[in-house]
């Protein structure tokens, strides 16, 4: 159902042509890159955290990991991911399909600067078989992101 909700959300924004439905799962960065035919870094992985006991979504490049110190500097506490068994209830998406589109109101979305180095990135589209291709600027606009943050390690800006 979530992929349908995301499709409707993107149709309202004229971006439905960016959606691809895959025959095999894209539930991990590795699987997504294989199915899409891009580098793992170009996968826009969407992670959900609890900050002050409230959900926060951070979208970052697929080749990165969260840096605890940077996360704490941004959000004023250490990173705590939403437990897997609570992800769908809180975000509306199953683990492996969490995306920055059509999520419940009140969940802030941040984009990590690690995404800015690519012409195109590929977030999930609401389930483990759907992806969306867009530029980082389109992702920012379509997701309604609060803004850009710097909370990752494992990559170097170009």
Low-confidence stretches: none
What series of H and E elements makes up the topology?
Answer: HEHEEEHHEEEHEE
* Overall 3D shape: globular
**What profile does the largest beta sheet have?**
5 strands, mixed
What distance separates the N and C termini?
39 Å
* Assembly context of the chains: single chain
* Cα-based radius of gyration, to the nearest Å: 14 Å
Q: What percent strand?
A: 15-25%
What share of residues is helical? 25-40%
Short description:
By secondary structure, the chain is an alpha/beta fold. It has helices at 2-12, 29-36, 68-75, 84-91, 136-143; strands at residues 19-21, 43-51, 54-61, 65-66, 109-112, 122-123, 130-132, 147-149, 152-153.
What does this structure look like?
This protein is α/β, with parallel strands linked by helices and 158 residues long. The chain has helices at residues 2-12, 29-36, 68-75, 84-91, 136-143, and strands spanning 19-21, 43-51, 54-61, 65-66, 109-112, 122-123, 130-132, 147-149, 152-153. The chain is globular. The mean pLDDT is 94.
Can you lay out the helices and strands and say which pair or pack?
Layout (H helix, E strand, L loop, with lengths): L1 H11 L6 E3 L7 H8 L6 E9 L2 E8 L3 E2 L1 H8 L8 H8 L17 E4 L9 E2 L6 E3 L3 H8 L3 E3 L2 E2 L5
Parallel strand pairs: 2-6, 3-5, 5-8
Antiparallel strand pairs: 1-7, 2-3, 4-9
């Amino acid at each position: 159902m979530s992929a349908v909700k995301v499709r409707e959300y993107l149709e309202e924004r004229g971006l439905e042509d960016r959606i691809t439905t895959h025959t095999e799962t894209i539930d991990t960065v590795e699987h997504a890159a294989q199915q899409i035919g891009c580098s793992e870094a170009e996968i826009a992985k969407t992670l959900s955290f609890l900050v002050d006991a409230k959900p926060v979504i951070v979208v970052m490049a697929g080749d990165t990991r969260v840096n605890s110190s940077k996360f704490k500097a941004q959000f004023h506490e250490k990173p705590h991911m939403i437990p897997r068994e609570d992800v769908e209830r809180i975000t509306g998406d199953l683990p492996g399909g969490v995306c920055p589109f059509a999520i419940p109101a009140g969940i802030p979305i941040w984009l990590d600067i690690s995404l800015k180095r690519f012409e195109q990135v590929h977030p999930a589209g609401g389930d483990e078989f759907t992806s969306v291709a867009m530029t980082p600027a389109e992702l920012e606009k379509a997701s309604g992101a609060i803004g850009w943050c710097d909370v990752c390690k494992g990559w170097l800006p170009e």
